[in-house]
Amino acid sequence: MDALSLSAFRAMIAFGSVELENHCAEVNDLNVFPVPDGDTGSNMSATMSGGVSAINAGKDPDFASLGRAMSEGMLLSARGNSGVILSQFFAGFAKALPAKDTLSIQDFLSCMGAGVRNAYAVVRVPVEGTMLTVMREGHEKAMASSPFKDFESLFIILLKAMEASLEHTPEKLSVLADAGVVDSGGAGFLYIFRGMAASLDGKSLSYSSSSTAKGSNPIDLSLFNEDSHLDYGYCTEFLLQLTKEKGDPSKFPLQEFIDFLSTIGDSIVCFQNGTIVKVHVHTKTPDKAIEYARRYGDFLTFKMENMALQHNEVLARREEKAHHKKGHTPIAAIAVSPTEEISSIFRGYGVEVILPSNEFMNPGADDFLRAFDMADADAIFVFPNNKNEIMVAHQAATLYKKSWIYVIETLDLPMGLAAASVMDVADLSVKENLRRMDAELSKAHSIALCVAIHDSKNNGLVIKEGDYMGLLDDYIIVAAPTMEECFEALLKKVEGFEDMSVITLVHGKGVKEEKIEKLREIAVGLNDFIEVYPVYGNQTLYPILGVLE
Known about the structure:
By secondary structure, the protein is an alpha+beta fold. 48% of the residues lie in helices and 19% in strands. It has helices spanning 6-21, 24-28, 40-57, 63-77, 80-95, 105-122, 131-145, 151-167, 169-172, 174-179, 184-200, 254-264, 286-293, 307-324, 340-348, 365-375, 387-399, 413-421, 430-443, 483-493, 513-526; strands at 3-5, 102-104, 234-242, 265-273, 276-283, 297-306, 329-337, 353-356, 377-383, 404-407, 445-451, 456-458, 461-463, 468-472, 475-480, 502-507, 531-536, 544-548.
């Protein structure tokens, strides 16, 4: 193909977007400081998706008008430092597009050069060893190898040059070398161009089931809690609409604004597009950026993220992979868990992959799909450990085609721990594991204690605010003013408790050892032969979780 039509260019951009989205998790996991945007792949993919939507929405008569639509779509959708730089590459590219309905190879190279220059210009302090280097060195190699007989030949050279440039990014940026990774933004940019090349070859691309560009992950509150320090500030970005009531938009002092941002933060990307100003800054005082910006207009969009939390999430994902990714196996297991302490219990039972959850957010189907990929086994057992997650896990299982997925319908954490405790993925077959887990769930009981936050009635049970509520197999059956009274009343309600032999008590944050000892005495007082095993779980909503057997 020696020239691109409008439809061929649309397909090229769409393919680039799909290929990037299919590798979001991989790109996200490459993130390192000192530019700690924790979701580079997702941010770049959101930016590309905005451009694709814009050019698919209309029927632009020529490349110049199509480029304007693409650039505006990416500008409005750009997220994170990486997304903003990417949007500016395509803004420069689009601005150089000619007002005609075909695009030659030389036109493409000229546009790419304009994109590189624009991307460098928008970064206050350009850093080599990043996406900027990959795009620049790719273009430079293509220009040195010109002319080309067709676009296919051009992209062969572009991809080889970008791959080599990406491989050498750690040599240019020590933080990459220290982390043992290549630049995440550069990797994302390479995936875009690989997708573009695939469109030229007539290949078909489809969205991977494990794509992570859409949706959001649960926030693991253990990664930034009351003992944490805000070492890195907030990733702050917004679109500011300049308004006439606050001054003449044409006289907006852009450089003065950039100079101010440099006094409160770093990693600054700030540019003006007509009457809209795009801002990205890392700062510990985002309120100052907000106050300053509102002198000139009002916000169209605003996003602020804790970078320490982002960084810790990246480290946790890496540690998870390093701990669990041991190559393809016959059987693996996945469990949803609210704390690292409870996760450690599951790992001790042989669970390979942990999905974090908390009281504010539980995993979605896309999170389960990513976990299935990470487990990498012929058969995968899934412990949802929450009645609300069982359907989500089943939905993800129906979408996944690489493994046999077995959702163990554990209604709560105690039942998940009970089922996992009898699992043996190393030595037993799928059938035998399922038989053992089914038998365990049929005989074990779950208990939980939590504090009522308001007065209520439940199946005739009068509950006062501050009372302890006792749950048996996920149903509230008793309430009492103190933990000890509630625990004793709960055990008395358990049919056959006097014949049981073991209670595993998972105690939460703030429950002292003296309290656990009192609960043990209560249990032994009701059953002389019961063994009580306390385990610290660090959970918040339920001070006591337990398994009765």
